[in-house]
Write a structure and sequence with these properties.
Length: 189
């Protein structure tokens, strides 16, 4: 899924009106598994001046990048973090770890050749799904609109739940980013 959708889904599942720290943790948990990708892309593109096509056709699939992805996309690590949060009854950490696990659960069936190792340190195995949120040859023409529709519905529900103007504005910005990144306009027009 696109990262803005992960933030929307994470906030919908684990955010709590009137509990800003919990909701912020849910948003951060939705972002965390993709954060290394953004940081490495920015570094490669703007510091090392590597063309985007090289980043996404070579660097992304390199052993070095996959080693980083293995850590921040590790279901065992996120699961251990969730177990700790539940055991200690820390709602902020429950929201963070829960949104991170939700992110991974949604990524697992929607990444094909670009799949990340999600069982590290137990295994470097990667599940190459027949479905993709971005690759039209793997049903993105169906997945993309479903992702956008779910993001719209969840944002509408959260706009009803959350009364804070700042939260509502943030949700609308996330939805705009999701609709822009999902390419929904290709399907609409």
């Amino acid at each position: 899924m696109n990262t803005p959708a992960h933030l929307i889904f994470g906030a919908a599942a684990f955010g709590r009106p009137g509990q800003g720290r919990v909701t912020a943790a849910a948003l951060l948990g939705g972002l965390a598994p993709d954060l290394s990708l953004y940081l490495m892309v920015v570094w490669a593109r703007f510091v090392e001046e590597v063309p985007a096509r090289v980043i996404f056709s070579e660097y992304y699939f390199s052993d070095a990048w996959m080693a980083v992805f293995a850590i921040d996309n590790s279901i065992p690590i996120w699961g251990a973090l969730m177990a700790l949060a539940l055991w200690r009854r820390w709602p902020v950490l429950v929201a963070f770890a829960g949104a991170g696990l939700l992110h991974l659960a949604l990524d697992l069936p929607l990444h094909g050749a670009d799949a990340r190792p999600m069982l590290w340190p137990l295994s470097d195995w990667r599940f190459s799904s027949p479905f993709s949120y971005w690759d039209r040859s793997h049903h993105a023409g169906i997945i993309g609109p479903l992702e956008a529709a779910a993001s719209i519905a969840l944002t509408g529900w959260m706009l009803w739940r959350f009364r804070s103007l700042a939260m509502r504005a943030g949700l609308v910005l996330l939805l705009v980013a999701e609709l822009g990144s999902s390419g929904i306009w290709r399907f609409v027009f």
